[in-house]
Amino acid sequence: MLRHSIAGSLVLLVLAGSVLAADKEVKGKIVKVDAKKNVITVMTEDGKKEYDVNKETKFIGPRGGISDKGIEDDRLEVGAEVTLKVAGNNRTLHEVHLPERRSKDKP
After folding, report:
1. With bands split at pLDDT 50, 70 and 90, how would you rate the model's confidence at 14?
2. Is residue 107 part of a domain?
3. Cα(98)–Cα(65) distance, rounded to whole angstroms?
4. How much is the average pLDDT of 8-32?
5. What is the CATH number of the domain that holds 53?
6. Residue of 86, 85, 57 whose CA lies nearest to 73
7. Which bin fits 64, alpha (ψ -120 to 50), beta or left (φ > 0)?
8. What element of type H or E holds 13?
9. Which of 33, 62, 68, 84 has the least CB density, counted as fewest CB within 10 Å?
10. What is the three-class DSSP state of 46?
């Protein structure tokens, strides 16, 4: 009986840890992109926030394609609306969902 309760407690701890470490989705407008420091600053509902970009961060276009340019993609411009998948540490980006490219004829 004791083994069952210990095993059950461990399962609950693992599940609780995975919930806390889960990615969260954040929507906002780009305020600044610093490719040298690998930081994207976004204005969210909660105010201005800075997020780190690393080698594992995926930049995904509106049709699901992956951008090879990463943080240097031309769609990451001031004012662009993006959706971000933020790691459990609330600082590192796992995914950046890019907007459609603006045509050069339209402002």
Report:
1. low
2. yes
3. 10
4. 70
5. 2.40.50.320
6. 57
7. left
8. helix 2-20
9. 68
10. coil
C-alpha neighbours within 13 Å on the C-beta side of residue 18: 6
- Domain membership of residue 14 (yes or no) is no
Report how many domains make up the chain.
Answer: 1
If pLDDT is split at 50, 70 and 90, which confidence band does 20 have?
A: very low
Q: Is residue 18 part of a domain?
A: no
Cα–Cα distance for residue pair 58/27, rounded to 1 Å: 16
- 35-71 b/e with 16+ CB inside 10 Å = b? eeebbbebeeeeeebebebeeebebeeeeeeebeebb
> Alpha-carbon distance 86 to 28, whole Å?
12
Question: Is 102 a domain residue?
Answer: yes
Per the CB < 8 A criterion, the answer to whether 22 and 15 are in contact is no
Range(s) of the domain holding residue 68: 24-107
